[in-house]
Design a protein that fits this description.
This protein is α+β, with helices and mostly antiparallel strands and 201 residues long. The chain has helices spanning 32-35, 66-76, 83-92, 95-103, 107-111, 118-128, 148-158, 163-174, 183-199; strands at residues 4-12, 16-21, 24-29, 44-53, 58-63. Mean pLDDT is 84; it is low at 136-145.
Length: 201
Amino acid sequence: MIARLSGKVVDKLADRIVLDVNGVGYDVFLPASSLARIGPAGSALVVHTVTHVREDALLLFGFLGVDDKQLFETLTSVSGVGPKLALALLSGLPPKALRQAVAQRDLAALTAISGIGRKTAERLLVELRDRVGEPDMGESGPGGEASPFQDAVTALITLGYARPQAVVAVREAAGGLPPDAAPEQLVRRALGRLVSSRSGT
């Protein structure tokens, strides 16, 4: 099985990248939050991968960190959760927020994700309760520094928003912005979405 790939980004698509490794192009599916952090074509990249073999295809799912990969594997061990649904979960709620939702038994945060119904969400909360620990609130981004995404989420929490709500708002705000967008820009856009949602406009 392919556990890790190191190469250059050839193309970025809506749900995956094409990664060139020594002249061979690999289609690698990634969570939306990870895709937003990947540089343009030509950027060097290392991804930790999970290989999923089907009768008609061999699919690669990639992650920027080992923790993300391990959480993905834990999700796919839950009855009824396949790799595509696990990827949707990690796209809707990045690892720290997902751990928080499980720890707090936040059913609403899970059912807000496309493809996750109430029964699946309840099963996830039951089966993951003792397998997914509380997130490390001091966890940092690559290089030991907090990412703009994390800074923006923290700012919204300070303003009184729940973590799952803040994560979703910042993820939506990041759409169309460069990966290195300033936290202040993410917060402004996220607040605009939260206020619009609250007012029903």
